[in-house]
Write a structure and sequence with these properties.
alpha/beta, 8-stranded mixed beta sheet, 6-stranded mixed beta sheet, 14 strands
Length: 310
């Protein structure tokens, strides 16, 4: 089975860069969106809101508009030669419903640019890796409370976008679940989405040779157990080089979650770093996916071989 490979890096942003904000998943509160746009404008970016970002599906209120409209917004922004980056407004649920509506050939022809998001956007990270071969950024989103209210999250995302060579080493807030060093290419995201993507045309066949980043939110411990067990039974974790564990907000007492993670992942025989500060948490770090790196679980560091963006 082919190991996870390094992906093509988009260009970094410069002052004045045109940035599209899209909503591929859940509905977006307008006041939070406006606050996020103000932050982006403060970075000398030129953000604009895609036409259907503030829509709400007439029948399924957990979706930001219809599948076709959400897909059209993303594709139009990506294929617009004037757009340098696409930042998702929020997660929730909905990417998997609209992924088949995207014209991946047209998006590939549009060339590389920056994609930012996390949570439900995990499904796009995987799809962009498989279909477009592009590095993407697992980071805070434009209308996210964690972005609007966190100077650290803003500072780290801004540095990754404008001066990625200054944030080549990421530091964990925790300790090693399993100590050791490992090399590989970064990938991952929200555990539930990775499990839900298995068997689709947008998922990698395995995480072999990868440094796999995992996190989740609002899942009871037995559900986390189910997702991890599914990945194990499917062989998706065979040959993984190392694991970085982010936040597990609202997933039950951490002692119980930690015991589960040790039970399901400790037997893989690879380094596992916990509480790495990415995902659904305050002050979340931005983690590039598709970049070769070295994990030192004991030291709590992830060092990228090269900047996330060119």
């Amino acid at each position: 089975m082919t190991p996870v490979e390094a992906l093509r890096r988009p260009a970094r942003l410069a002052p004045g860069a045109r940035v599209a904000v899209v909503a591929p998943s859940g509905p977006v509160p307008e006041e939070r969106l406006q606050a996020g746009l103000d932050v982006l404008r403060g970075w000398d970016l030129d953000p604009f809101v895609a036409p259907h970002v503030l829509d709400r599906h007439s029948e399924f209120g957990y979706l930001a508009g219809t599948d076709a409209d959400r897909a059209a917004d993303l594709q139009s922004a990506w294929c617009d030669p004037a757009v340098d980056a696409v930042i998702c407004a929020r997660g929730g649920y909905g990417v998997q419903r609209m992924a088949d509506l995207l014209d991946w050939d047209a998006m590939r022809a549009a060339g590389p640019k920056v994609l930012v998001g996390f949570s439900d956007i995990t499904a796009l990270h995987e799809a962009f890796a498989v279909r477009l071969g592009l590095v993407t950024l697992h980071g805070p989103m434009a209308a996210g409370v964690d972005f609007i209210k966190s100077e650290r999250a803003q500072r780290h995302l801004k540095a990754t976008l404008f001066a990625p060579e200054t944030v080549r080493t990421l530091h964990s807030d925790g300790t090693a679940l399993v100590p050791g060093r490992a090399r590989g290419v970064t990938l991952g995201g929200c555990l539930a989405l990775l499990a839900g993507d298995l068997g689709t045309p947008y998922a990698r066949p395995a995480a072999r040779g990868g440094l796999l980043c995992l996190e989740d939110v609002g899942e009871e411990t037995y559900r986390l157990d189910r997702y991890l067990t599914q990945l194990l039974r499917a062989g998706w974790l065979e040959g993984v080089s190392g694991l970085l564990l982010g936040s597990w907000a609202e997933c039950g007492p951490y002692d119980g979650v930690r015991a589960l993670l040790a039970d399901r992942l400790g037997g893989l025989g690879v380094p596992v770093a916990e509480q790495f500060g990415f995902g659904h948490c305050d002050d979340a770090l931005t983690v590039p996916f598709g970049v070769p790196a070295e994990l030192d679980a004991g030291a709590g560091t992830l060092t990228l071989d090269e900047p996330a963006l060119r």
